[in-house]
Amino acid sequence: MDCTAEVVGDTTHTIDVADGDTYGDLLTAVGLSTHEATVLVDDTPVPEDQPIETDHVRILRLIKGG
Amino acid sequence: MVALDLDATQLDRYSRHLIMDAVGPEGQQQLLNSRVLCVGAGGLGSPAIEYLAAAGVGTLGIVDDDVVERSNLQRQVLHTEADIGTPKVESAAAFVEAQAPDVTVEPIERRLTKANARELVASYDIVLDGSDNFPTRFLLNDVCWLRGTPLVHGAVLRFEGQVTTIDPRADGPCYRCLFPSAPPAGAVPGCATAGVLGVLPGTVGCFQATEVCKLIMETGDPLVGRLLSYNAAGMTVDTVEYAANPNCPVCGTNGIDSIEEIEYTETCAIDDHCAGGS
To answer: Among the residues of chain A, which ranges form H helices?
Structure first.
């Protein structure tokens, strides 16, 4: 299954996901760690260890500076 | 109904507000009567403090324990070469006193900590987060949520900025709905290591000041349950809606009722035993 991963403020990736892949795996596939981003499905944050059950997510990066 | 008490000088100074239907004398009086705590007088705090003071926010508390360094001046427009070595709260207070005589500045030359955060936040109507570190950011989220104080969050890095408003009164989501804990030290870069376009915090800090003014005047649609993402490189603005997380360790079903058990170091994680309903 393909899943489009829209990194907010950056690029959109199309990722080929296998059965059992998690949202954490999706973050890894777009070059982010689970520490530095959160995955939103239908505007709701989802746990990184949850299996992917959608074809579109938005990824929000954690920004530190002030 | 707000009691109106604008003198002739104020009627002149704030005339461009007074003629707006959405502000008017009543909105201006609300601004003058309000108390806002700005945490950080750096990149985000500089423009926010300048515009909140110019708008006539009656009392501005400014918390910061840093002194002005030369490397700050590329973006921290409150401070000048002459201020290098001066506490940022002193430099900020001097700017506001010269710019906006209606505004009372409360300089607080301290680091916001678990020990003093509740007392500081309790004295203000709204908090603007211009901090540059995760312990302060998560502490502010937790304290403001528990006290019911609106919090306007901002963050910047390189060309990218984010703004969102946490309003416990509206029962909206909180920052921990998005990010339950902070990353380990070093996992996410800051401006000192990755850089920031000098003008970027100007834009983002002004977004934050805008949110504060709207909250004070109860006008417009604040960014509650929405995060504004600004990319200065592509000059794009995106608004991401986010829902409250029922498992959020702060505002969720079993959220905390105190910060006593939370360590605001490193990841600021909230263990199950801290949660109020467990």
So the answer is: 23-29
pLDDT bin (cut points 50, 70, 90) of residue B278 is: very low
- A53: pLDDT strictly greater than 60: yes
Please enumerate in sequence order all residues whose Cβ is within 8 A of that of B234, keeping only pairs 6 or more positions apart, or say none: none
Per-residue pLDDT reduced to its tens digit, B151-174: 999 999 999 999 999 999 998 899
- CA dist B24 and B11 (Å) reads 10
Q: Which pTM was predicted? A: 0.95
Q: Are B144 and B151 in contact (CB under 8 A)?
A: yes
Chain B hits for A8, Cβ within 8 Å: 227, 229, 238, 240
| H/E stretch holding B208 | helix B200-217
Shortest distance between the Cα of A64 and any Cα of chain B, in A, equals: 5
* Mean predicted confidence (pLDDT) in B23-46: 98
CB contact under 8 A, B130 and A66: yes
Query: Looking at the partner chain, which of A33, A45, A63 has a beta carbon nearest the beta carbon of B187?
Result: A33
DSSP state of A50: S
Contacting residues of B for A28, CB less than 8 Å apart: none
CA distance B201 to B132: 11
